Structure formats: structure tokens, C-alpha cells
Fold each of these.
Amino acid sequence: MAKKTRWAVIGAGIIGAAVAREILSRHEFADVTLFEKEDRPAAHQAGHNSGVVHAGLYYEPGSLKATLCRRGVSLLTDFAAEQEVAFDECGKVVVATDDVEVERLRAIHDRALANGVPDIALLDRDGLRGIEPNAEGVAALHSPHTAIIDYPGLTDALVADFRAHGGRVRFSTPVKNIDRRGGPTRDTAIVRTPVDAQEFDHVIVCAGLQADRLAARSGESRTPTVVPFFGQYFILDEGYSDAVNGLIYPVPDPKYPFLGVHVTRRIDGGLMIGPNAFLSFSREGYRGLGLSIPDSLAVAADPGFWRFAAANMATAARELPGVLSIERFVAEAARYVPSLAAADGHRATRGIRAQAMNRDGTLVDDFVIDRAGATLFVRNSPSPAATSALAIAEHLVGIIDGR
Ligand SMILES: Cc1cc2nc3c(=O)[nH]c(=O)nc-3n(C[C@H](O)[C@H](O)[C@H](O)COP(=O)(O)OP(=O)(O)OC[C@H]3O[C@@H](n4cnc5c(N)ncnc54)[C@H](O)[C@@H]3O)c2cc1C
């Protein structure tokens, strides 16, 4: 009988769950263990995001983000339909409010065409009103196939499918580190937890906000470091739930990898605005100030962060007072949906983005994957990595399989 190949996947976020499932779907003789430090899947980024299935408008053509997003959309859509995960192709407009933004919008349109995003169209003011009667702008880009989805539900379905095919999940099991083992014919790796140590032929680390720490504890480079950026959301009062038909986004500021405060329909029917992007005092603190001393000290000790801060401090100081204020969010959204100007609502959860930063303080744009012996480390997987998760899984397992 063929010897089983032993695989470990670290992290049951959406990427780890997709990777674990992908291994079993490709390898009949694989013995796969998924390690997760929390007691459930999707406890961090996968369960605290905008819930948008991006179509691939913004990304540098040829980048991993661009190619894996497009492939990810079709894999995700099929899997969601098969598993009956809530999904709604509600469409999206990106709205330009002045001439500078119109120029940027044209550049996004060019990228979207280069990335093969289907059925996109540039609209004038009247065209925009035809799609979103309450939106106001001088031009817009319409992406009719951008969608919303229940990402926690999808992650649960990936884990359930993995288990149904013989996969093993170890919740509440934080991986301390991974040791490289050089063998005469091939490398292996030892995964250490507080209770045991196990040898594997292949390990794939999808640790999101903890990616740099787990890599450093495993003897790999600490850089790129993870700098956490929180994004607060507000849910508007029910009377506003039908103010928009789909998703309405501003034109993003090209200086930052974040898309700006957008108006998002939620898969449960509510209307949400957010997320902003501000440096987080902790990697996993979702309430109050969410202050974590070790996380804050780690950011302060990162020389790259001070270079980033020097370039961005003035903007940060300007933004700080409104960071958790619904008035600020509503005013931002009312720039392109004026009927929201008087809206009220309540603060919803926040999400914390794992944004990788280089030593020189620049933010890493594309997905980053490093190989060290028998282990692959996902070092940067920001948005649109939820959309792209099933394609990232194909890509990672393909690297190990030599494809
Ligand atoms: C505010 C916000 C909005 C976003 N909006 C969108 C969107 O609309 N569309 C989109 O496509 N993307 C969006 N994203 C990005 C998307 O959510 C992430 O790219 C995606 O969730 C990354 O998945 P992941 O599996 O790498 O990370 P995570 O979902 O964070 O999962 C990592 C997992 O690893 C576990 N882990 C960490 N360390 C260890 C350890 N030592 N041992 C065991 N387990 C460990 C963690 O507990 C966690 O469960 C958004 C992100 C945020 C924060």
C-alpha cells in the first residue's frame, strides 16, 4: 500500500481551510491535519471583513492578486452554490466626485480590462443614477458581477468538506513553531504545539495576523512584518437598508492599499458603512480601544513602522479624532450618497487587517509566499485574499506538487 504523505496546515481562516480541502481533493494518499489556535474557524480576518467578492478591478495586471482573484471568483462562486452558502451578485459602482478622481477611475478601468473583469462599464452622471438612483458623482465605474457572501459560512463549509473527506482538525491548538528537518532525500518539518510535536512531509502556514511571528519563531526572517490596521464598521438604521441597490465605493487613494469607506449591502440585508483604516493597538482586539501592550510595543520596535509613520503622521493626526465617530463615517459616505447625510446607526464589529510592511516602511502590495525547506509560509494575504482563497489554495498546493 502507498505510504501516506503527511501534511499540516496552520490556521483555519479562509485560506487555511481552502488549502486543507485542496490537498485532500488532489491527493488520495494524504493525511492532513489543520491546526487552529482558536476554538472555531474564521475567528479573525475571515470573520471580520466586508463580505465582498471582488471582481478584480484594482490589481496590477499579472500580479498574484490579479490572477488569483479572477480565478478565485469562479471557484468561490461554484463552491458557494454547491454548498448553499448565502451569495448575492448585487454589483458595485466606484464613484468619482471630481476631475482628479475621474483620472484615477480611468486608470482603474484600464486595469480592470487588462485583468479580464467581465462587463465593466464607465458611466457618466446619468448612467450612475440609472444604476444607483441615490448616488451622486461626475463619473463611475460599474462592475455588475461584484458580489457579497457569507465568508464565515463559507469557511465553515470548507472545513466541513475537509472533515467529510477524512481531514483532521485540531482547534484550540496554537502552533508554537515549526522546525526544519533536513533528510538524506528530502526535507521534513516538525510542528510543535504546547502538548506535542509531530513530523510532516509538507507544512503550509496560513496564520494571517500572526504570520511574521510564527515565521520568526520557526527561524525564518521576521520581515516582512505584519502591521495591524483596524477597520471600523457601522450598521445603519433599518430605514436606510434600501438606500442603495448594491455596493458603492469611493475612488481609492493610490497611496494606500485600502479601498476607502464604502457603502456595503450585507448578506443579512442590512446596510453597512466602513471600514476606515487606522493603525491598530492590537492584532486581535475587537472591542473598546483593543489595546495590547505587546502588540503596540512590537509595532513601535519596528524600524519600518517609523519610516511609514514619518510619511503618514500628518494624515493620521487629522484622522484620529473621527476614528470611531459615526458622524465622520456618514459624512464620508454622503460625499457620494447624499441621502445618507442624516443617517444614524450603531457601531458594528471591527476587522483588523494583516498588512505586511517592508524594512523600509513601504507597504507590501501583492500576496507573498516564502518557501523554507518543507514549509510554505503565506507572508502577506490582504484583500482580496478572501475572494481569492480557493485559487490561493490551488497555487500553494501546486507549488509543493511542482506545478
Ligand atoms: C476590515 C477588513 C475588510 C476586508 N474585506 C474584504 C473583502 O470584502 N473581500 C475580500 O476578499 N477580502 C477582504 N478582506 C481580507 C480578507 O479578510 C483576508 O485577506 C483573509 O481573511 C485572509 O485569510 P487568512 O486565512 O490568511 O487569515 P485569517 O482569516 O486571519 O486566518 C488566520 C488564522 O490563523 C490562525 N492562527 C494564527 N496563528 C496561529 C498559530 N500559531 N497556530 C494556530 N493557528 C494560528 C488564526 O487564529 C486565524 O484563524 C478584508 C479584511 C479586513 C480585516
Note: The chain has a mean pLDDT of 92.
Amino acid sequence: MVSWIKNFAALFTGKPATVLSGEAPQAIKLLCSRRSCRSFSDEPLREEEIQSILEAGRFAPSTVNLQTWTFITFSREQWHETFDRPIPFKGAFAITICADNFRLKNLLPDLQDTPFVNLSLAIFNAGLAAMSMNLAAEALGIRSIMLSETARAGLLDSAFLREKLKLPEKVLPLTTLVLGRSGIKLPGIPPRQPLDAVVMPAHYNKDAGALLGDWYKQMFLGYKLTHPLSSFDRQIAIYRKKMTDAEAVVKGMFYKI
Ligand SMILES: Cc1cc2nc3c(=O)[nH]c(=O)nc-3n(C[C@H](O)[C@H](O)[C@H](O)COP(=O)(O)O)c2cc1C
């Protein structure tokens, strides 16, 4: 009982240490205060804001500077035309970030002999670009969320997105970054796993899983607070089902089963 009370309290107090220390540089404050937003206002984004965000993505680092990503952009109207509904959470602009091994295939045909390494690196590179755009948005005071499952906007619906966005082979949609402004105060920070479970000096600690008990309880409690009619395990079950369906699609894209 005491541990549940402690974990309930932790939901409201678990802030990043660097922000608490006060004098942290602005960039670190930005990194630690970034939050996913699930409710946007009607206010549009300015064209130069959108361009700054996209440029932050284009200038992200990548392995051998191969830039194995593509950003498919949507205004509200374009999203509606494509999906016949508003941008998720009524966002003002959306960017679907894809790992892309298609654009380079004629220039560097040899790289195609290692599809899994190629795919892993492309996903990693595209993830960095996604985060660069996310942080550029934060720096501009624009709220955001990345989606991989909600509203069929990411990896878990890759077959659907490939058809809707006319993606060629070797282009994998990873996530949609939804952008906009929000008048609402964002809810509490979702609990993070403890530092000593995540940071491992010098070698891997195989017992780190045993340090996750409190975090797991906090996820249950936090989920119940924000979704009283559902539960964390129910959400995980839905997620697992979608993952199983997506598994076959993603496998089929990269090697013949
Ligand atoms: C690649 C990626 C995909 C995500 N997909 C979803 C999603 O489909 N639906 C959703 O509500 N949140 C999604 N999220 C947001 C996470 O739930 C969120 O980042 C996490 O709970 C931590 O909260 P915070 O971003 O506010 O710190 C996604 C985040 C990432 C990085």
C-alpha cells in the first residue's frame, strides 16, 4: 500500500534533475521540458516556422551523410484530402517521416546487398531527423507529438500509409510529427525509468529489469488517471495486436518471405 502511495506521488514530482538545478543551459531546458501534446488550437503555423522545422530535419546528422530519410508534409487541407479526416488531435501541420533506401538505390547500388543493416541505419538516421524537427518546433514555441500508432499515422500502419502516400519499395513510414499551438496546460510528465536502470557504467547490467518495479506501477497509475475507462495492460494488448499485424508487412517490404 505504502509503495502505491509513493508511486502515486512520484507521478507529480518526477521532474528531470537538470531542470530543477536552475542554471541549466537553454538547450537542456528545452530537451527536458519537451512534452507530447494531444490537443491543438485552430491557430495555423507560419510558413517560415514550418520551413525552419524542416531545415532542422534536413541538417540532422546521418551515417556517411547519406540522409536516408524523406519528410512528407501536410497542411490541414492536404491531410484531409489524403485521409478524409482532420490531422490527429486537430494539429495545424503534419510531417510523416520515412526511412528511405529508395532515393539512393541507383547512385549506390552496392549498399542494397545488406538490407537489414541498411534499414536499421535508415531508421536510426530518420529518427534523428524527427527529433531535430521536434526540438526545432519546441524552440519556436510550437507544440508537437510523434505518432506511430494513433490515427494510422505511423509504422504500425505501414501498409495503409504506403498506399495512401504512394511510397515506393524500401521506403518505410516511421512516424508522423504533428505540430501546432496549444492553449492547454500539458498534463504531468510520464514516468521515466530510473537513472541506474538506464545508465550502465562500463558494462551491461543484466539485472536492470529488477529496478523497474516502481516505474511499472507508475505507468499503471498514470494511465488510469488519464484514461479512467481503460488501463495500461489493455493499451499494451491493443498495441501488441497491431505490432503483430505490422510485423508481416514490414518483413515483406525488406526481404521476400
Ligand atoms: C516514435 C514515437 C511514436 C509515438 N506514437 C504515439 C502514438 O501513436 N500515440 C500517442 O498518443 N503517443 C505516441 N507517442 C508519444 C509517447 O507516448 C510519449 O513520447 C511518451 O509517453 C513520453 O511522453 P512525453 O513525450 O510527453 O515526454 C509516440 C512517441 C514516439 C517517440
Note: Residues 35-36, 145-150, 154, 175, 190 surround flavin mononucleotide (CB under 6 Å).
